[in-house]
Backbone:
């Protein structure tokens, strides 16, 4: 495993995001298109490979953790403007929940 130093870690801007809409990407087996509210930071669209594990309607309103300053990635289906944190195991993929007491845009540290 490659190690990073504290300066590398501090470059990552983790933010609380509220999922305001989620939809299947018809042409993709794994992707959901998520629209996120990051409060004063703004809104973002993220394509996440979680289609097999989540129904879009069950994600709306959920508070999650987003990597806010990830370089945008042009995809066949649109531009992904961040990444969500999730854990994975043999039993599935699980989005990292932020407390509903957190507000969209709150910094995660």
Residues:
């Amino acid at each position: 495993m490659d190690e990073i130093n504290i300066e590398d870690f501090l470059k990552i801007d983790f933010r609380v995001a509220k999922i305001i809409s989620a939809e299947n990407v018809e042409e993709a087996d794994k992707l959901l298109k998520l629209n996120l509210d990051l409060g004063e930071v703004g809104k973002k669209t993220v394509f996440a490979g979680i289609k097999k594990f989540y129904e879009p309607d069950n994600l709306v309103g959920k508070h999650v953790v987003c990597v806010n300053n990830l370089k945008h990635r042009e995809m066949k289906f649109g531009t992904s403007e961040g990444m969500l944190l999730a854990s994975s195991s043999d039993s599935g993929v699980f989005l990292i929940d932020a407390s509903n007491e957190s507000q969209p845009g709150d910094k995660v540290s």
Summary: DSSP finds two helices and nine strands in the chain. The two ends are 23 Å apart (CA to CA).
